[in-house]
Amino acid sequence: MPVLPPPEALPSPVPASTKLQAPSLVRRMACWMYEGILMFGVVFIAGYLFGTLSQTRNALDNRHALQAFLFVVFGIYFTWFWAKGQTLAMKTWNIRVVDRGGRPLTQARALLRYVLSWLWFLPPLAAVAPFSLPGGEATVIMLGWVAVWALLSRFHPQQQFWHDALAGTRLVHHEPVKK
User: Cα separation of 78 and 72, whole Å?
Assistant: First the structure.
């Protein structure tokens, strides 16, 4: 008959609520800012590729085509990495994106999350478009909306951003496995 260790020697199971704990708003926004910095490299390479392939000589030529191209490139970037669980910025800040049950995202769900993540930007862009506001005023409105959208996560039961709630995804704290 096998000898079992005493119950206090057995590892206690981690409750599911602890595993799926949302990172703090400060950590999520720091990750968001770091992601924005990393996206400069993606924009540079994609812009160079677009300019070379389209033989664009002036930055204002083909501006809308470049914006559409970047939208697609961003979609590929985020869908690819979110389906794997993390972007580089998310790895740095120990954040992972999963579905509501804690499973990895499918490509389709990652794409839905990407489309819904534009709720960070589309409302203020639509609000300022008809008024031809100067760049500074448009920036203030954009940053104000980003702050409001981020703070609205406080009203979600699991402290998630609302585009995550709509997409059926969630950001969770994720400690890397020590080797």
Answer: 10
At residue 67's C-alpha, the angle toward residues 65 and 71, to 5°, is: 115
Structural domain boundaries, residue 101: 22-173
CA distance 85 to 67: 26
- Residue 17, in any domain of the structure: no
Residue 37 lies in a domain: yes
Q: Which of 60-64, 93-97, 139-143 has the lowest mean pLDDT?
A: 60-64
Residue 135 lies in a domain: yes
Asked if 137 and 145 count as a contact pair (C-beta separation under 8 A), the reply is no
Total count of domains within the chain: 1
Give this prediction's pTM.
0.81
Query: How far is residue 73's CA from residue 79's CA, in Å, rounded to a whole number?
Result: 10
- Asked if the structure places residue 11 within a domain, the reply is no
Strand ranges for the chain from DSSP E: 95-99, 169-173
Angle between helices 25-54 and 63-84 (to 10 degrees): 130
How many whole angstroms separate alpha carbon 158 and alpha carbon 149? 15
